């Protein structure tokens, strides 16, 4: 254990810091880091280097090269820089490289040097140029802040949703600030800058002077400033050699340290661990590295090479031409177990396990000591936690073996934490491998913003598909979130390989993906089309099981007829108010793309599409519908069209009649004589109704034949009604019903009686009784009850309330059904004698 803590350095009495090697860099740099623009992504991300010839007169004619490496120095991309001078480099949260140029343009590149997009930081920059820039990260995304030649600041808090904000002017600022940085407070980005001995804070509305509390006197300039990874703390390096550390709000001072060096440092970054009370700042000069905090002494390291610092969530990465190291505060669990002469339960358990492997009885002594103190559970938890903070697999295994050994002597220790730690370390060790080069710590891996999905995305960005799939299978992630998603990314990358034939690429993708759930062949085909491989896209679409998903891309590729076939296969024919169905979408696309004749010919070959288009035209384009019927010689539908048009479009009677005449001619051509005759009758009725309106007044147009007759009767024009019935051959029964109903509605009982006696009623007289009862006139109903035919007489007498006579008629008819009907109308109080009479008649009939 003494050897293990050899690289531990105390900072005061309460914290140790250690620096260990992540990788031995083998990237064969041609330039010193000091001669390059350098950007390293957090969370163990990639490193970008751009040699800066714009600062060297002798190399002004040499084009720079942009190189991108993994954290282990493995080359990922290299491209010749052909754009303008670059002021600053930085990585976004999505691991896209942002290159800020002097002219204010920001060029965005992928991890493998592929150009993604560009945007501008405003028109003002074109005139004044960019002097300096910062790329920063917030919870909303990655932002860019620039300082222009007019000594004004402009920033965007999220380059994914670009909204430029010009910051207020700093009073009296005539030169470049000695240092500046971006602060994020209350979800708003601010700029803190130093001008001589003064500090200014810029927000969206104002520029305000701020003073750090407790700052040592005699400061005439601030040479460097650094904000912590979480934007909670701020460090200021003054020209007096003092380092002030406090909260980012500049309201509270944490500590102040005199480093006795007045030269401006190359870099200054925070080195802190989440939930730790210790706060430390790492300051780098040309050949010296210093860790300072709330302690009278500092930790100092000698730098053999030009180095670069990368602040992380739980420490600082330090890389040079030959090595890549990690400096961090020793976690509490590791300190408890490994510090010299530690009697912590975890330390005792680790010793017990080692002695057990030696078959020594000391293992039992250590174990009994832990059990007597009741700290065995704590010892196991300490070993599990410490294993997560170790970088070397051998030490991880040693600590996990100790935890497993201690678990054997516990009855109810939940295994979840142990199993999860084993899984996490296996994943971490896999991605820390030199060939992968993502040196994540356990703390960063478990950080809320770096989920397993984000890690998988980063592996996909590096095109490490086999490893990503292995991790998904090992962690048993749902297929749609894991393997399927990665295979889809692999397929999208595969279609970009233009040195392989379309047939081979399509076959390889189908063999690998098959019917994997969650994979959309249409999305892969869209990527192929975006790469200019139209035929490959069509081949891939053939593997898409959902026909409707093929349609949008086929339309985009101008394969409209094929899109129509696929839309018909999908059966999506929705014409509702919501999103239209695919077939309807394709039809509208074809209509705009083809001339009218070709469009109609295409429809004739697709009956379902033609039917759907007709439905659309019935609501939207009536003239087109007529053209369709004419082209198909569909006289039956053409006649129906003209009938609808006569009522929908024409208001004048002449126009209606003309349209109906056209419809009748179409029906004759369709050999539908019934429809033609009915249309001609409607024309005659319309002319007659217009004449009736002219002669009698009132409203007759658009009434049906029956309603017209009824209206004439109600108006007292009985002869005209009878003449109309003769002209249109209305049957006598229907005419009698119409007249009976109309006279009853008028309550013209005298005329109704005359009508009933005019001749023998073809509908009988029971309807007269019923209609009178309906109008609540029993007196008139009795007049007709006696004239009802014998078979309907019982019903008529019951309607007028003559139960006794109805009983007599039923007994006379000897009809059981009529007897039961009368009996059902008898009430106990008034019709008791009638009911007895019916019962006696039934009894006599049964005796016979």
Automatic annotation (TrEMBL):
* Subcellular location(s) per record: Late endosome membrane; Lysosome membrane
Pfam families reported for this sequence: Vps16_C, Vps16_N
Q: Keywords in UniProt for this one?
A: Coiled coil, Endosome, Lysosome, Membrane, Protein transport, Transport
Q: In the record, what terms sit under GO molecular function?
A: actin binding
**Domain Vps16 C-terminal, residue spans:** 519-844
Membrane association type: Peripheral membrane protein
Presence of keyword Membrane: yes
| All copies of domain Vps16 N-terminal, residue ranges | 4-420
- GO annotations of cellular component type: CORVET complex; early endosome; HOPS complex; late endosome membrane; lysosomal membrane; recycling endosome
Q: Which residues cross the membrane?
A: none
Query: Coiled-coil stretches, from where to where?
Result: 349-376
Q: How does it assemble?
A: Core component of at least two putative endosomal tethering complexes, the homotypic fusion and vacuole protein sorting (HOPS) complex and the class C core vacuole/endosome tethering (CORVET) complex. Their common core is composed of the class C Vps proteins VPS11, VPS16, VPS18 and VPS33A, which in HOPS further associates with VPS39 and VPS41 and in CORVET with VPS8 and TGFBRAP1. Interacts with RAB5C. Interacts with STX17, MON1B. Associates with adapter protein complex 3 (AP-3) and clathrin:AP-3 complexes.
The entry sums up its family as follows: Belongs to the VPS16 family.
Task: State what protein this is by name.
Answer: Vacuolar protein sorting-associated protein 16 homolog
Gene (UniProt): VPS16
């Amino acid at each position: 254990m003494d050897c293990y803590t050899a690289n531990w350095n105390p900072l005061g009495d309460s914290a140790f810091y250690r620096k260990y090697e992540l990788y031995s860099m083998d990237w064969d740099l041609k330039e010193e880091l000091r001669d390059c623009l350098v950007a390293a992504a957090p969370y163990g991300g990639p490193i970008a280097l751009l040699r800066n010839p714009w600062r060297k007169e002798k190399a002004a004619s040499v084009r720079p090269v942009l190189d991108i490496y993994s954290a282990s120095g493995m080359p990922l991309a290299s491209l010749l820089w052909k754009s303008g001078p670059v002021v600053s480099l930085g990585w976004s949260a999505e691991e896209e490289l942002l290159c800020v140029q002097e002219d204010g343009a920001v060029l965005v590149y992928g991890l493998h040097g592929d150009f993604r997009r560009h945007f501008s930081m405003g028109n003002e920059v074109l005139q004044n140029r960019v002097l300096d820039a910062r790329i920063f990260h917030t919870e909303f995304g990655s932002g860019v802040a620039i300082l222009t030649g007019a000594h004004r600041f402009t920033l965007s808090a999220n380059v994914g949703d670009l909204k430029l904000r010009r910051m207020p002017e700093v009073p009296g600022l005539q030169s470049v600030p000695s240092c500046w940085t971006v602060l994020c407070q209350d979800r708003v980005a601010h700029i803190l800058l130093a001008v001589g001995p003064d500090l200014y804070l810029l927000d969206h509305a104002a520029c305000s002077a701020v003073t750090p509390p407790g700052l040592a006197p005699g400061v005439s300039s601030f040479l460097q400033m650094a904000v912590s990874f979480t934007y909670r703390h701020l460090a200021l390096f003054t020209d007096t050699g003092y380092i002030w550390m406090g909260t980012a709000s500049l309201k509270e001072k944490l500590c102040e340290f005199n480093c006795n060096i007045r030269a401006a440092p190359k870099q200054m970054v925070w080195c802190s661990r989440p939930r730790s009370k210790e706060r430390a700042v790492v300051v780098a000069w040309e050949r010296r590295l210093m860790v300072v905090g709330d302690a009278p002494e500092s930790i100092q390291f000698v730098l053999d090479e030009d180095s670069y610092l990368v602040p992380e969530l739980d420490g600082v990465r330090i890389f040079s031409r030959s090595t890549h190291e990690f400096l961090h505060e020793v976690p509490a669990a590791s300190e408890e177990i490994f510090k010299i002469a530690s009697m912590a339960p975890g330390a005792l358990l680790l010793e017990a396990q080692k002695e057990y492997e030696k078959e020594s009885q000391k293992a039992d002594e250590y174990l009994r000591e832990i059990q007597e103190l009741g700290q065995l559970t704590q010892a196991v938890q300490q070993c599990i936690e410490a294993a997560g903070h170790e970088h070397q697999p051998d030490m991880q295994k040693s600590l996990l073996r100790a935890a497993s050994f201690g678990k054997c002597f516990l009855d109810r220790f939940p295994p979840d934490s142990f199993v999860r730690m084993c899984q996490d370390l296996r994943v971490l060790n896999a991605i820390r491998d030199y060939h992968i080069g993502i040196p994540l710590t356990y703390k960063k891996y478990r950080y809320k913003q770096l989920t397993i999905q984000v890690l998988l995305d980063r592996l996909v960005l590096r095109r490490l598909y086999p490893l990503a799939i292995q991790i998904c299978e090992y962690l048993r992630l749902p297929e749609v979130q894991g393997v399927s998603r990665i295979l889809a990314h692999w397929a999208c990358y595969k279609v970009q390989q233009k040195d392989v034939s379309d047939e081979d690429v399509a076959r390889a993708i189908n063999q690998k993906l098959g019917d994997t759930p969650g994979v959309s062949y249409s999305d892969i085909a869209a990527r192929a089309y975006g790469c200019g491989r139209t035929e490959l896209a069509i081949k891939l679409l053939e593997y898409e099981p959902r026909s409707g998903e093929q349609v949008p891309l086929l339309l985009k590729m101008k394969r409209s007829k094929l899109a129509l076939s696929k839309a018909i296969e999908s059966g999506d024919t929705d014409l509702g108010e919501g999103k239209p169905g695919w077939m309807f979408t394709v039809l509208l696309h074809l209509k705009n793309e083809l001339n009218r004749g070709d469009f109609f010919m295409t429809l004739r070959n697709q009956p379902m599409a033609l039917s759907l288009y007709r439905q659309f035209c019935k609501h939207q384009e009536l003239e087109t519908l007529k053209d369709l019927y004419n082209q198909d010689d569909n006289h039956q539908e053409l006649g129906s069209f003209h009938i609808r048009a006569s009522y929908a479009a024409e208001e004048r009677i002449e126009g209606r009649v003309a349209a109906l005449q056209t419809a009748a001619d179409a029906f004759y051509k369709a050999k539908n004589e019934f429809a033609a005759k009915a249309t001609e009758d409607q024309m005659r009725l319309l002319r007659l109704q217009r004449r009736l309106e002219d002669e009698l007044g009132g409203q007759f147009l658009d009434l049906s034949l029956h309603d017209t007759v009824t209206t004439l009767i109600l108006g007292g024009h009985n002869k005209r009604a009878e003449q109309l019935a003769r002209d249109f051959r209305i049957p006598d029964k229907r005419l009698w019903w119409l007249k009976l109903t109309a006279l009853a509605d008028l309550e013209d009982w005298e005329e109704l009686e005359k009508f009933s006696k005019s001749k023998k009623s073809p509908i009988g007289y029971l309807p007269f009784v019923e209609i009178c009862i309906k109008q609540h006139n029993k007196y008139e109903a009795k007049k007709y009850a006696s004239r009802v035919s014998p078979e309907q007489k019982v019903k008529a007498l019951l309607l007028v309330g003559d139960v006794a006579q109805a009983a007599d008629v039923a007994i006379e008819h000897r009809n059981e059904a009529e007897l039961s009907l009368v009996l059902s109308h008898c009430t106990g109080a008034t019709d008791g004698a009638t009911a007895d009479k019916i019962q006696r008649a039934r009894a006599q009939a049964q005796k016979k």
